[in-house]
Amino acid sequence: MARVAQFVVSGLLAATVANGQSFDGTSRSEDAFSYVQPENTTILGPYGHSPAVLPSPNATGTGEWKEAYAKAQEFVAKLTIDEKADMVTGQPGPCVGNIVAIPRLGFPGLCLQDGPLAIRVADYASVFAAGVTVASTWDRDLLYERGYAMGQEFKAKGAHVALSPVAGPLGRSAYAGRNWEGFAADPYLTGVAMEKTIRGHQDAGVQATPKHFIGNEQETQRNPTYNPNGTLTDVIQEALSSNIDDRTMHELYLWPFANAVRAQAASFMCAYQRLNGSYACENSKALNGLLKEELGFQGYVMSDWGGTHSGVSSIEGGLDMNMPGGLGAYGKTPGVGSFFGKNVTYAVNNGTVDESRVDDMIIRIMTPYYWLGQDEDYPEVDPSSADLNTFSPRSTWIREFNLTGERSRDVRGDHAELIRKLAAEATVLLKNEKQALPLKAPKNIAIFGNDAGENTMGAVNEATFEFGNLAAGGGSGTGRFTYLVSPLEAIKTRAKEDDALVQYFLNNTQIATNNVTDLWVPATPDACLVFLKTWAEEGADREHLTVDYNGNEVVESVAKSCNNTIVITHSSGINVLPWANHPNVTAILAAHYPGQEAGNSIVDVLYGDVNPAGHLPYTIAKNATDYNAPPTTELSTDGTHDWQSWFDEKLEIDYRYFDAKNISVQYEFGFGLSYTTFSISDINAEQVAESIPSIPEDQPIQPGGNPALWETIYNVTVAVTNSGDVKGATVPQLYVTFPDSTPEGTPPKQLRGFEKVSLAPGESRTVGFELMRRDLSYWDIVSQKWLVPEGEFVLSVGFSSRDLKEVAKITPVSV
Ligand code: BGC
Facing residues of 6 across strands? Predict the structure, then answer.
């Protein structure tokens, strides 16, 4: 399975690598991979190669950022060269990332904190629902509200920069360890989620950091392997290279990041791994070309932690801030060394780097700071952060941090209410037969599974734990719980209202290996609630797609004797559910990672106080082997550059792949039931733009790119009716099928609109979708433009990607 590939590193160094990748998956018992690289194929392009795009474009201070840009210019003019080096280099300190203060200019420094579901290094802060969870709401307002509430907490703790949200990974592979930090395996839904979250964070006054840019689709070999006995830069094997072709880059991976730029995100975090042969944090095509030029990004690019692999090349390649930085000597160990720091001073003094480039880096850093008013009355860093920060404990500090703010400030406000609501609205009802749900005051409830009870492993999820409710994943994207309401606790409280008997069995081994009729008393329970969990964390890809801790056996054991088995999963995302069609499994709820109110939010859904309206942000296949694009996990060669991941499936990830290959699935992308029923009728598509030429007008670039791409050119409406007898919400979804004239490889249908609508029984409402030019365009690799293809488009609206009810046909481009 060896493959020889010719590629270029940093656009400078040509190399030939032997790339033997073994995907036989023998170590993965039930999830064998089928992906095999073609033998001895020579790849000379079109990808696996990253051209140089130089110089790094200067910020111009367009639009709303004009005044702040002028202030940033004034600020930079007052700095010495050493201060400039400080401004672009992190230091060990109280926060996960720190830029030191410059007291003589009244600049308090910057505090950067993780992460995408909570301010992690903090006490008395909330743990919100994870990205995958909130994406399951398909609710623009809730996405914004969550972003805003999180932003409030970051700010109140004195963090200037939130290392959130995540659009990379996007979800190319079902196995990727960090998919749950991001939103959906679809660029459109992720794009909306990015935009809403960023606007929320920044409206609350904190800088957002969309990450990880770009191609960060797996954990395995995300960083290089260093020689443990060698010098600090002695690399045995470089990090994985995500090799992505230009069209796939634009239509899939760059898409949601374009929304992020358009939402005026302050900063971007570049990814650990290589992209088309060069490290993402020095990839000038990605940072200078795509991000700063094409998308008109005006903010700054910070490196992922330890993701900087050069000084001058990174600076020229578009990197503006090195994190976590350190002393300024070459180094790989976080917090110890930095390719920036003192090296920036040297490089400017000896003429290797033009000082104007360093000035631009600082202008980019300071413009959003002024724009968000962070120079006025910003809360001081909470000193408790310094005590909790295991990343750079006080013993590692080199510079002084003056922590005079009030310690352990409680910043949670009334966010618990929102978190409860969010997670309930995000719960996806996958199956509901024999009217199992909502529960009707059951008198005898049995609860099963090690996910149901109290968390037994403390406040922070650092590793998987057998006993206790799982409400967040692990790594830098986790949160520190001040409390967690377990499902067991919440059900016990609720069941008291019905004077019900609540019995519980929390040991999966016991349940799986015993006859459950020997466990419960006195008779078969009215409802058997089975709580299952699936762990995922940063730094590791998932070993399998099944639920953890013998979850399948637990379900089988309970369902064997209980004809009303209701399964609830707390999971990082995709699980194959081999028992989904078991006749005694009457209901299935996917609750993902709900955050601190886990128990309350699931009780709200189980008892019908909240009518579930969540929809899947990915596909649940019938078998694990049905998924394509597995992570690159094993190499049979040990060459320095051998870790290559060829994104050969191109645009076909998740539902696009299952649709293109006509594979039947268990639950499709966009699927989700309700306690009521809905119908859709009366589709109407109206052209809004007077005429629609195939080529967009070339307007001056604004954040988000050519503004013409964001102009609404069609309005589509449908009538949605609640045809059942309880109040509920649903999410009509619009999918576009491109005309035959579109280049080969275009997925059969692509999500291009959705809108959540809440309706009383019998109520009907018109729901509108605005189609922008980008929505009806493909990326033309020849002209390097988004083009609307000639011919007839099919617009389908329904309740999931495979439950399409209404169809309209349009021909936007007149020939
Ligand atoms: C992660 C980032 C995170 C950073 C700081 C890195 O390992 O990839 O997402 O923000 O650490 O904790």
Answer: 16
The 8-class DSSP code of residue 63 comes to G
> Domain residues for 483?
415-618
Query: Given the CA of residue 324, which atom of ligand 1 is nearest to it?
Result: 5
Same domain for 330 and 461? no
Residue 281 DSSP class: G
Which stretch of DSSP H or E encloses residue 313? Answer: helix 312-317
The closest residue, in CA terms, to atom 6 on ligand 1 is 305
Which residue do the tokens 């990672």 mark? 593
Q: At 300, give phi and psi (nearest 5°).
A: -115, 155
Same domain flag for 252 and 336: yes
Cβ of 316 less than 6 Å from ligand 1? no
Ligand 1 atom with the smallest distance to the CA of 539 is 7
* CB distance 211 to ligand 1 below 6 Å: yes
Domain presence at residue 733: yes
Q: What's the CA-to-centroid distance between 162 and ligand 1, angstroms?
A: 11
Residues 383 and 501 in one domain: no
Same-domain status, 336 and 427: no
Give the pLDDT mean for 318-333.
74
Judge whether 236 lies within some domain. Answer: yes
Name the residue at shortest CA distance from atom 8 of ligand 1: 304
**Residue 99 and residue 223 in one domain:** yes
| Structure tokens given for 417 | 């209410």
Q: Of the listed 114, 304, 359, 541, which one is catalytic?
A: 304
Q: In this structure, are 477 and 339 located in the same domain?
A: no
How far does residue 198's CA lie from ligand 1's centre (Å)?
A: 18
Question: Does the predicted model carry a pTM greater than 0.90?
Answer: yes
- What's the Cα-to-Cα distance from 700 to each of 296, 371, 377, 707, 710, rounded to whole Å? 9, 22, 35, 8, 13
Q: Residue 47: which of 222, 186, 253 has the closest Cα?
A: 253
pLDDT in tens, 619-639: 999 999 999 999 999 888 889
Answer yes or no: do 98 and 172 share one domain: yes
Which residue owns the Cα nearest ligand 1 atom 4? 305
245 is catalytic: no
Q: Provide, rounded to the nearest whole percent, the portion of the chain with pLDDT above 70.
A: 92
